[in-house]
Every structure is written in C-alpha cells, then in structure tokens.
C-alpha cells in the first residue's frame, strides 16, 4: 500500500504547488482573552459541571479519605477500585475502616481484571491534573499506575481535584503544562458523567461510561 | 436519471408525504438551532474564534502533504501503524487484513463517518465478522437496518415510540417502554458485554495532530473511549484532510465543534490518543492502527476553489440550519453525508454522473454559510458544481455528465435574446400577450407548475409602465 502513499502525496504536492494557498495568521487572542479571577474559576467549574449532573464533595488534605468514605457508606457503594502505587492510593488505604466498602487495587493488566471491572466493581478513584474554567472540564492524565479504565468502566467515577491547578482554558492548560513536548499514551478532558441525547433529543445519563461523576475537591 | 443514480426528487416527495418524519425533524432542528444560538450569544467571541478555527484549517490545507508526512512520522514513532488507502476498497482491504491477523470475530465501533463512506460494516459482515455500532444513535440505526440520517445524531428521524418498538422487536427480554432512560440503560447492558468481549475496536478521528502524532476524538457517551481502550486492537479511520499542524490548533476546533453541533459548551469526553499501551501500562490496546483515506479528496484538493470543501470539521450545523434538509430529512439524500456539506462533498467523491442532482437540492439561502464554524463558502461551491455538471473538462469526477444539447441550446437562445434589444422587446411583449393563455402543462412550465400555481403575467411589461411614467430606458 506504500504505492497509495506515494501517489497520494505526489498528487497533493503537485496540485498544491500549482495553486499554492496562503493561510491567514492564526490569532489566538480570542481564546487567550477568556480569563476568570482566581476565586471565580472553581465556582464556574462547579456550576457548569453540575448543570450536566456532576456531583461535588468538599474536603481538605487532612480529611479527604474520610469525606470519601462517608460518601461511599452513605450511598451504599460496596466496592471501590483504586491505584495502589499512587500517593492518593497510599493515602486512601491508610486506616480504611469502612467495612461496607471494599477497596480493590488495580494492580494487574486489564486482561486479568475485565470480568471483575465490568461486572462487579461499583466505583473507581482517580486523580486529575487540574480543571478548566471555560468549559467545566477535568484534566485526566492516566499513567502506568493509574490506568485509563479506572475512570471509564466502573459505574461511579470519583476524581480528586486540587484547587491549585485551575486553568482558564484548554489552551492555557496545554501550554502551561507543556503537553506538546511529551504527550502520554492518553489524555482526557472529562466534563460530566456519560450522557446521550440520541433518543429524540431526550438527555439520558450513563450510556456507556460512568453513570455518576463525583468531583472530590481538596481545598488547601 | 442514470440507472443507478439515487433519485433525490422521488425520495423527497416520499419524505414530504410523511408527517411523522417531518415532525421529528422540525422539532429536532428547531431545538438544535436555539441551543447553538445560545452558545454564540457573544458575537465578538464567535467571530474571533471562528476566524481562528478557519485559519487553523486553512493552514493545515496549505501544508497538507508535509503535515501528513509529519503525522505519519510522529505516529510511527509513538508506535501507531499508519496505512494509506487511495480508495474505499483499499481501506476495507486494510481493515480486513488487520482483522484477519488479529483473528477477530467481534468488532465494536465508535461513530465514524469515514467508515460509513466505506460501507465497512457490510464488508465485515460478508467476511463473517460480527460488527456492532456502539454510539447509541448508530446502534439504533444498525438494529433498524437503515442508514444514519444526520452525521451527529444518526437516529434523529425516529421518535421514542419508534425506538421502543424497535428494541422490543430486536433485543431479547426488552420491555415495551417508551422511556428514553429505560431504553438507554437497555443498550448499556447489551453493549457492555460486547465491549468486554470485542477483539478489535474501531473509531473515527476528529483531528489528528501532526506535531505530536495524536488522534483526538470527542464524544458524550463513553463508547468512543470503550472502543479505543478496552479491545486489544484499535483501528482509527480518517479522511486525509483531518490533520492539523500543532497541538495548540486543537482547542479552537474543539471549542466550535460541540457548540455548533449540539449547542453544548464541550462534549463529555475529549479523548487524545498518542499510541498503544506502553511497557508497564496496564490497559489500552496493544496495537493502534491509523488508516488515512483519500477516496477522491486529493482530486477535491486540486481545485483552488473546491478545496475549501476539505476545511469541514463535520459539526453538522449546516444540516440543522438547512431548510431543505429540515423538510426532507437525511434519508432522502441516500448518501453518507446529507444536507449542505453532503451536497458539496458527495458529488465530488462519487462523481456528478451519479450525484449531479445533489447540488440542485438547495435554495441558495446561505443559512449554512452564515453558521459554518470554519467559513466554508458552501453555496458558492454548490454553484460551481452545478456548472461543472454541464461543462466537460474540469477536475471534478464525471464533470460534464449532465451536459445536454437541448438545454445548452435554450441557454444560448436566452443569452442571445438578452443581448439584443429588439429580440428582448419582442420576447417580453409576446410573454405579456401569450403568457396567460399558455397551458400550465407545457413542457417548459410543467416542472414549475407541478407544485406551484402558474404566475399571472402582467398585461404590460415593467419597461412599458416605466416609459409611460416618463422614465427613459437605459
Ligand atoms: S460544512 Fe461547516 S457547518 Fe457543515 S458540517 Fe462542515 S464545518 Fe459544520
């Protein structure tokens, strides 16, 4: 099929050179102009995400595992999968005393976990790399320790959001975090629980991804 | 009409006679237009970001061959296998080859218009491979055995009641409930089992970043993430125009696409994939393939005016705002891309012999041009294609296919009449005297009077009346 490659590229080059195209300069100012005061970002993120059924929990560095535990007990969530090698994962298991919620480590490849992940685990816990004020979006940065399916397959996704990494726009986040220099296997923006309007424009939540998205805000 | 050419006029007549269908479209399009308008309430912001997005797409086209090479180089470095397909047959053969090597029996698919263009599902089924659409709308359409009627909302032509009946007929143990939440949950249960078992996941691409070798996919449901994360092999399909130069070019496109398409500030998921599972990672596919499809796009690219067709980011907003689409619905076009973008893209891909009618399915109202987030001059392109259809020798596939001697003689006569004052005077006087007695069944009048009342011709021409008032002829 490399024939196809060469003939496509040759045609494109020849026809472009016959009629070159000059593009106007890309002026990013209309996006850069979108800014919010530091204390407005979180309320805006919250308002936009709540409008699409995201739920919020407030906590501090000291008490977030306890706030999470209380939530899981209150909602009757029987199992929570977590990333055992991350700092958050280590913090979570310290003195976990909720008998009603079993903690299950994501410590093997997906292939060995599929049935469990799809059929019995109720919730998954991940961290975030911040959030975006313009659209109300969490930045998820899956790693070898914190796999992609943790925020995808369980019915409830709990995401820890620290308030020191709130950006105005998607553009600002990727610039300040230097994404273009080293993209990981997968980056995600997540702006709510899974939803659809494919049946007569009626909004329904929880089609294929998580039915509920809980943002656990960790205030300083 | 050519033997195998779809008959748009006949299909539209059938659609117009279906009040249920028209009601479904009218309601949906009205809702989408209102929601979109709310997202662009700040007109300065709209104009600014729109100019930026248009420049991003234009810049990509201005460096298209170089960016495709760069995309290939960076994807390859990231571990993505890149394939090039000149035709849909080539693309289908590439897909089958990957599937055979993976010994695949079950494929799950996320929404991809390019694979609709390829009729990939039919090819896979013929090969004995089970293929399941997982976007809820696409799943519904697949169960129904029809085609998507909209590029963003494939099942928009059906209402809840019709979908409830369909599910009851096709899904084991389905209850007969006209309730979107219940039906959605039912699809969730069916498809989750399939995601888990699938050998290969397939998807489209909303934008491919040359700079980093990244494939961007946006969606609300999470099925796109499932298809690109859970099965051991992922195959992504893109039209060769989908490349952008830099990662920074993605935010302007992502900013306009969902707002234009469905009036939401952003989709639930923006999924950026830059390779297969790396050493030590616990999930993600072990193989990622990118199939880059030409299928006539390089021919579109050859014409400096028609080239603008390739700026499209497939938001579907032009459909939502098109008075013709809203009346006849998506199926009347019998094409993978309906509505305004379809009317300029499909004739160029499939040729004017087969699709010469499509550029005529337009009132030239310009609504699509006003809302297109990347400023494609859709109506101008439509005009060009009407000309290309009757003028042999252009670059468009089957250009001149509709050329017709009687028609060109009539037009030369028309031109001659307008060029000579005497001929013009004789013709207008004849019209004002004879127009009202001419029966509406005359061949030249019939097309018009079929669906309209014949206009009454005034007894005196405008020139006459003006002269009587002392206004001189110029
Ligand atoms: S032509 Fe413009 S409005 Fe229509 S789908 Fe493409 S980008 Fe959207």
Automatic annotation (TrEMBL), chain A:
The record places domain LUD at 45-218
Kindly give the InterPro entries that the UniProt entry links to this protein.
FTHF_cligase-like_sf, LUD_dom, NagB/RpiA_transferase-like
Q: Cite the SUPFAM superfamilies for this sequence.
A: NagB/RpiA/CoA transferase-like (SSF100950)
Pfam families for the chain: LUD_dom (PF02589)
Q: Identify the domain of life.
A: Bacteria
Protein's name according to its UniProt entry: L-lactate dehydrogenase complex protein LldG
From TrEMBL, chain B:
In terms of Gene3D superfamilies, this protein maps to: Alpha-helical ferredoxin, NagB/RpiA/CoA transferase-like
GO MF terms listed in the record are: 4 iron, 4 sulfur cluster binding; metal ion binding
What are the boundaries of the signal sequence? Answer: none
> What keywords appear on the UniProt entry?
4Fe-4S, Electron transport, Iron, Iron-sulfur, Metal-binding, Repeat, Transport
- Please list the GO biological process terms of this entry: lactate metabolic process
Cited SUPFAM superfamilies:
4Fe-4S ferredoxins, NagB/RpiA/CoA transferase-like
What InterPro entries is this protein classified in?
4Fe4S_Fe-S-bd, 4Fe4S_Fe_S_CS, FTHF_cligase-like_sf, Helical_ferredxn, LUD_dom, LutB/LldF, LutB_C, NagB/RpiA_transferase-like
Domain annotation 4Fe-4S ferredoxin-type: ranges:
302-331, 353-382
The protein in question is named: L-lactate dehydrogenase complex protein LldF
Q: Which organism is it from?
A: Azospirillum oryzae
Q: What is the lineage of its organism?
A: Bacteria, Pseudomonadati, Pseudomonadota, Alphaproteobacteria, Rhodospirillales
């Amino acid at each position: 099929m490399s024939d196809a490659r060469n003939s496509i590229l040759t045609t494109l080059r020849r026809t472009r050179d016959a009629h070159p195209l000059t593009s106007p300069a890309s002026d990013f100012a209309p996006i850069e102009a979108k800014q919010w005061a530091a204390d407005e970002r979180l309320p805006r993120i919250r308002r936009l995400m709540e409008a699409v059924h995201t739920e919020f929990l407030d906590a501090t560095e000291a008490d977030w595992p306890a706030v999470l535990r209380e939530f899981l007990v209150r909602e009757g969530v029987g199992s929570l999968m977590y990333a055992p090698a991350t700092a958050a994962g280590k913090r979570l298991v310290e003195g976990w005393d909720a008998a009603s919620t079993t903690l299950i480590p994501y410590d093997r490849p997906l292939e060995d976990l599929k049935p469990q992940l799809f059929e019995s685990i109720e919730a998954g816990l991940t961290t975030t790399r911040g959030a975006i004020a313009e659209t109300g979006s969490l930045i998820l940065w899956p790693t070898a320790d914190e796999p992609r399916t943790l925020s995808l397959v369980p019915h409830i996704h709990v995401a820890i959001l620290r308030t020191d990494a709130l950006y105005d726009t998607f553009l600002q986040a990727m610039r300040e975090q230097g994404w273009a220099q080293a993209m990981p296997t997968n980056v995600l923006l997540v702006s709510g629980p899974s939803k659809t309007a494919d049946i007569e424009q009626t909004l329904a939540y929880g089609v294929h991804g998580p039915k509920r998205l809980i943002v656990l805000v960790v205030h300083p | 009409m050519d033997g195998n050419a779809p008959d748009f006029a006949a299909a539209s007549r059938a659609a117009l006679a279906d009040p249920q269908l028209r009601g479904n479209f009218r309601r949906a399009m009205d809702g989408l237009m209102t929601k979109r308008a709310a997202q662009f309430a700040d007109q300065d912001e709209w104009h600014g970001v729109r100019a930026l997005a248009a420049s991003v797409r234009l810049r990509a086209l201005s460096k298209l061959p170089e960016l495709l090479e760069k995309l290939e180089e960076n994807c390859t470095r990231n571990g993505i296998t890149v394939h090039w397909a000149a035709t849909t047959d080539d693309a289908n053969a590439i897909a089958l080859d990957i599937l055979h090597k993976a010994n695949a029996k079950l494929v799950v698919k996320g929404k991809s218009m390019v694979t609709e263009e390829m009729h990939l599902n039919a090819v896979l089924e013929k090969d004995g491979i089970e293929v399941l659409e997982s976007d809820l709308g696409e799943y519904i359409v697949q169960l129904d055995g029809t085609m998507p009627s909209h590029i963003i909302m494939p099942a928009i032509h059906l209402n809840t009641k019709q979908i409830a009946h369909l599910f009851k007929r096709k899904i084991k143990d389905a209850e007969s409930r006209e309730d979107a939440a219940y039906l959605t949950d039912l699809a969730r249960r069916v498809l989750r089992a399939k995601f888990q078992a699938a050998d290969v996941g397939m998807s489209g691409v909303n934008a491919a970043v040359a700079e980093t070798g990244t494939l961007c996919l946006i969606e609300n449901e999470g099925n796109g993430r499932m298809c690109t994360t859970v099965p051991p092999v992922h195959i992504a399909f893109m039209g060769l125009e989908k490349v952008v130069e830099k990662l920074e070019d993605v935010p302007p496109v992502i900013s306009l696409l969902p707002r234009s398409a469905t009036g939401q500030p952003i989709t639930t998921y923006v999924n950026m994939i830059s390779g297969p599972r790396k050493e030590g990672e616990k999930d993600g596919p072990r193989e990622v393939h990118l199939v880059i499809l030409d299928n006539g796009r390089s021919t579109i690219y050859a014409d400096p005016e028609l080239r603008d067709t390739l700026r499209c980011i497939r938001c579907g907003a032009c459909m939502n705002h098109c008075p013709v689409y809203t009346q006849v619905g998506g199926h009347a076009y019998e094409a993978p891309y309906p509505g305004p973008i379809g009317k300029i893209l499909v004739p160029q891909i499939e040729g004017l012999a087969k699709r010469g009618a499509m550029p005529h399915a337009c009132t030239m109202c310009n609504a699509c041009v006003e809302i297109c987030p990347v400023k494609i001059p859709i109506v101008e392109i439509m005009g060009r294609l009407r000309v290309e259809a009757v003028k042999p020798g252009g670059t468009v596939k089957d250009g001149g296919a509709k050329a017709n001697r009687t028609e060109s003689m009539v037009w030369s006569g028309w031109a001659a009449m307008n060029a000579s004052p005497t001929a013009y005077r004789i013709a207008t006087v004849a019209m004002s005297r004879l127009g009202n007695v001419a029966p509406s069944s005359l061949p030249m009048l019939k097309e018009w009077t079929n669906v309209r009342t014949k206009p009454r011709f005034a007894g005196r021409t405008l020139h006459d009346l003006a002269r009587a008032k002392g206004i001189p002829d110029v």
